[in-house]
Amino acid sequence: MRMTPETILRKVCRTIDILIDAGAKYEGLFPSLLDLETHDMLVEIPPAIDGQRDGDRSHLGSNLIHDEAAILTMYALGRVLEQSAYTQAADQYLRRFATHCTNTETGLYPWGEHAFWHLTEDRVGNSYVDVADPNRWSEAVGRCYLKSAFPEGVAVPAMDAGLGLGLFADLFVMTRETRWLDGGIQLAERLIDIYFDHELPRGAVGIDWYESQMGPSFLLHGLARIALLAQMGEACSLDADYTAR
Fold first, then answer.
1. With pLDDT > 70 as the criterion, what percentage of the chain qualifies?
2. At residue 161, does pLDDT exceed 50?
3. How far are the Cα atoms of 63, 65, 73, 178 from residue 217, in angstroms, in the given order?
4. pTM of this prediction?
5. Would you say 219 and 201 are in contact if contact means Cβ atoms under 8 Å apart?
6. What single DSSP character describes residue 157?
7. pLDDT at residue 110 is higher than 50
8. Residue 83's pLDDT is what?
9. How far is CA 136 from CA 15, 141, 183, 241, in A?
10. How far is the C-alpha of 82 from the C-alpha of 237, rounded, in Å?
11. Residue among 96, 100, 102, 99 nearest 114 (CA)
12. Which DSSP helix (H) or strand (E) runs through 125?
């Protein structure tokens, strides 16, 4: 039986609930590395996957840029589902970062820089990432995605999967062609099978932990957006997010 938008949103909401609970120990900040079963912050950093940067994995910490898409999703679902707890939790996260986890003269981080906060040491760090121009992906890429199977035997980060959903969502908004929405729902079902065999999504295919640097935030955003578009059409309250594109 085909997965419904409501089922997809329940998966997203359950993950958000777990992140909020995990962050309650840390003034509302979400730990970057979590055990899939206990939902506790990992004591030791797991090995990196191929191509992963160790420098911003935020062990025993929280990374704002990695959580940004999840926070955007929380605000949208807070409005649509009337989940005021999501709005309050997102506010608390951002308030904590703005008032306690910065080291610039203004107290805020400029666009293009991302920061992490060590949850056990009260210590801040920062590094730079490339911010790509949010140019629209072509329909040719979308057609390729529609007819391509999900790769086997590759540690695909959750971010990459989420951005695929974002592509289908954008193409549907641009063209109003239902093939993009249908393709997005079908991809969402496949991704839930791959990443959500626990209540928290795994950070990448083949690993057994949640890791924010691998982009589960963007997977949550992509799942929620395609589901809300299927439910609400033009009234969808969750905007596209191009932070990782």
1. 85
2. yes
3. 11, 10, 9, 26
4. 0.88
5. yes
6. B
7. no
8. 86
9. 29, 11, 18, 12
10. 12
11. 102
12. strand 123-128
Phi, psi of 173, rounded to the nearest 5 degrees: -65, -40
Q: How far apart are CA 167 and CA 163, in angstroms?
A: 6
Which of 141, 129, 7, 8 shows the shortest CA–CA distance to 68?
A: 129
Sheet with strand 123-128: strands edge to edge: 61-63, 113-118, 123-128
DSSP calls for 28-62: TPPPSEEETTT-PBPSSPPPPPTT--GGG--TTEE
Q: Quick one: pLDDT at residue 245?
A: 63
Query: Comparing 134 with 161, which gets the higher pLDDT?
Result: 161
Tokens matching residue 158 = 């959750």
Question: 221 and 241 in contact (C-beta within 8 Å)?
Answer: yes
Dihedral, CA of residue 39, residue 42, residue 45 and residue 46, to nearest 10: -40
Rg, Å, the chain Cα set: 17
Model confidence at 67: pLDDT above 90: yes
192-221: average pLDDT: 96
Q: How far is Cα 146 from Cα 152, in angstroms, rounded to an integer? A: 16
